[in-house]
Amino acid sequence: MPRFLFFIELADARKKKRRRHYTLEQELARLWEKMRRHEIAKEDRAKLVTEALQKMKGKISEIVGSHISSRVLQTCVKHCSQAERDTVFEELSPHFLNLAYNAYAVHLVKKMLDNASKKQLAGFISTLHGHVAPLLRHMVGSVVVEHAYELANAAQKQELLLELYSTELQLFKDLVSLKESRLLDVMSKLKLQKGSVLRHMTSVIQPILEKGIVDHSILHRVLLEYFSIADKSSVTDIIQQLSSPLIVRMIGTRDGAKIGILCVKYGNAKERKKIIKGLKGHVDKTAYHQYGCMVLVCILSVVDDTKLITKEIIRGFQSVLKELVLDKNGRRPLLQLLHPNSSRYFSPDDLATLSLSIPSLSPKDQSGESSLTETIKVSLGDEESKEDMAVDEVNKDKTSVDDSDLAESGKKDPLVRRQELLIKSGLADSLLDVCIESVEELLRSNFGKEILYEVATGGSDGIMLPTLDDKINSLHNAVASLAAMPKPADSQEEHVLENFHSSRTIRKLILDCPNFASTLWEKAFKGKSELWAHGHSCKIVSAFLESPDLKVQKLVKKELQPLIDRGILKNPKHKEQESQ
Fold first, then answer.
1. What is the mean pLDDT of residues 449-458?
2. Which GO terms describe its molecular function (predicted)?
3. Helices of type H across 403-447
């Protein structure tokens, strides 16, 4: 057969194949329109799904690259029986790698993984062996690897990670157990050369960063491990690359937030400026995020350029201040300014994260290396040791947080930095306005009450005093006026002196803030103390007697002593003796 006739026949065959696929797609589209309706009966949908799968049998790998066929298959996989799902998985198994690079097929692959059995997921992860790095360099393929990584157990996660550390580990991955979860441990066990591992990891990481594919938690894990062994120049290069709007896309994961914190701590002034400017327009979303808020906490704690922070971050806070105050995560940056590094508001794990350091950039701080590598070990799934380790980190960092390196924390005095960010920026003034306007809502709130307490006491080190004395007194009066309201006879809503959250906050304010205690007594309790000396509110009345301030004790003694004599209230001295 002449050569040109061969190509003509080949072209005709391809046209016929495309025509058949087009006809099949039209049939599938009609079935899809019926099966995806909400009002359709379960039995009718099952019949349509079975019919569609029968039409696609043997051709799934060919047609799944089409956006129509891919959507039909996703619906079928969602609603079909387990046996039908297993059949589809088996047919696609030899083609998963190719499908992972297809923009339409990738959605089906993710759906298949969501519904895969443990055995099927393990088989899929095995097919990725030797292809993890190339897939991570691909915009679509990286999504598949990340999805598999999120679904994988600890051993499977380690299997995917080891491939990115060294070429040797691709061959000897079975020699590594879960005990060697950290890269340093793996290198020590297998006697791997540090230079070889660094070169391989650099060749993996650099192309990914150059393409801007930085959203995935598997990359964040690899970067943390890289920081734990890399030399100073290598780490500095990575920090320079990440100090941009890219960092905003990374801080949505636990490890990504740690990378963000390390970039803020070890970046120079120019790099820190790029990071802060990159947060413009994303400040509120970042503050609400479980991990992202800790990056903002770090920025407020270590960056010296308070004018830039005020412009880009504090102004962002002020536009949604009440929402932040009432939000579990949003309040954290505010609490860091009001009461820095407080174990009352930050968990041991949070404080350990804030005190992370990079070994090659902190040669004098031997605890720094431990901090980074131990944190890596925790987040790989060693849950039993997590709490103890985090507590150890806090104990270690009591000195490092207070006497932090200039390279990490800047040259400005922490108290001066707080004053500029909290007082000069007008943030404290805005916080007081919010607390006064929404005093009842904040007192009854699980999270808002903490901000109100710190503002009412003037913040740690009395940072808001005496500048804002008048407004703080107005807040004290607002709380006292609320407490002075008559006790409702028949109401579903509890009085603030009996509500779970507000009663505890008011009690704590009495013990820690004598000015508030005096105002509250004069406005709400004087002459009415016996009314509140019963039930839940009696703890508040007792707080006046337990106050460490002698003036407060003297103020209330005349009225409360008869209640003690009658046995309505307990003498605080007797309480101390009982506890001893």
1. 97
2. mRNA binding
3. 406-409, 414-419, 427-437, 439-443
DSSP conformational letter for 461: G
Alpha carbon 150 to chain centroid, angstroms = 15
Per cent of the chain over pLDDT 90 is 70
Calpha distance 265→260 (Å, rounded): 9
Q: Is there a contact between 355 and 390 (Cβ–Cβ < 8 Å)? A: no
pLDDT band at 472 (very low <50, low <70, confident <90, very high): very high
CB-facing half-sphere around the CA of 388: CA atoms within 13 A: 4
Using only the alpha carbons of the chain, give its radius of gyration: 31
Structure tokens given for 189: 């066990």
Given the structure tokens 């960056």, which residue do they identify? 303
pLDDT at 363: 61
Distances (CA, A) of 30 to 26, 52, 220, 268: 6, 10, 43, 59
| C-beta of residue 68 within 8 angstroms of C-beta of residue 28 | yes
Which pLDDT value is given to residue 64?
A: 86
One-character DSSP codes across 369-386 = HHHHHHHHHHHTT-GGGH
Q: In percent, how much of the chain has pLDDT > 70?
A: 85
79: which residues sit within 8 A by CB, 6+ positions away? 35, 45, 46, 49
Secondary structure in 3-state letters for 492-548: CCCCCCCCHHHHHHHHHHHHHCHHHHHHHHHHHHCCCCCCCCCHHHHHHHHHHHHCC
Contact criterion met (CB below 8 Å) for 337 and 422? yes
pTM given for the model: 0.87
Residue 570, amino acid: K
Check: CB of residue 388 under 8 Å from CB of residue 304. no
Contact (Cβ atoms closer than 8 angstroms) between residue 162 and residue 173 = yes
Compute CA 225 distance to the chain's CA centroid, rounded to the nearest angstrom.
Answer: 19
